[in-house]
Amino acid sequence: MSGPGSGVPSGGWRIVVGCDDAGLAYKERIKADLLADPRVGAVDDLGVHDGDHTAYPHIGLAAARKVAAGEADRALLVCGTGIGMAISANKVPGVRATTAHDSFSVERSVKSNNCQVLTLGQRVVGVELARLLAREWLGHVFDPASASADKVAVIDAYEENRCG
Ligand SMILES: O=C[C@H](O)[C@H](O)COP(=O)(O)O
């Protein structure tokens, strides 16, 4: 254990953020929260920015590739529902992404499923709930010695057999 909190990597979390134009306001707000959070060491903003209408799959895939390459620990992605971002990110081998709009699901996405990517829907939840979920998300860490690890390993093995 190292860094400013339990389970936080040395140097802090390296987080990629991204959105489409339907998720821009929440991405900007959560990015500001992350930059002010002592548990965060780096924030990499892949856009979109104001006036940019890049569609969600481009952003979701690019963010997931950064996680898969080890250039970031996690990604926080926002679109209208969160669903398109999750589908896109999950196409990248090694990445586990989910949409979650409640505290318990956010916690279990990390502790049960070792998800590195959380996606949120700006058209689904209020901004304060989205901010709370992003804050809580950083406090959860997967335990590779837990009973959940063997289950996640089944997914990894399937993926390795197909993509390896
Ligand atoms: O999952 C997709 C997102 O919600 C996106 O922001 C909106 O997609 P649409 O314009 O195809 O509905």
UniProtKB/TrEMBL annotation:
Keywords: Isomerase. Its EC number is 5.3.1.34. Transmembrane segments: none annotated. Pathway: Carbohydrate metabolism; erythritol degradation; Carbohydrate metabolism; D-threitol degradation. GO terms for biological process: carbohydrate catabolic process; carbohydrate utilization; cellular response to carbohydrate stimulus. It comes from the Bacteria. GO terms for molecular function: intramolecular oxidoreductase activity, interconverting aldoses and ketoses. It holds the Pfam family LacAB_rpiB. It catalyses: D-erythrulose 4-phosphate = D-erythrose 4-phosphate. It is an enzyme of class 5 (isomerase). Belongs to the LacAB/RpiB family. This is D-erythrulose 4-phosphate isomerase. It comes from Actinocatenispora thailandica. The lineage of its organism: Bacteria, Bacillati, Actinomycetota, Actinomycetes, Micromonosporales. The gene is derI1.
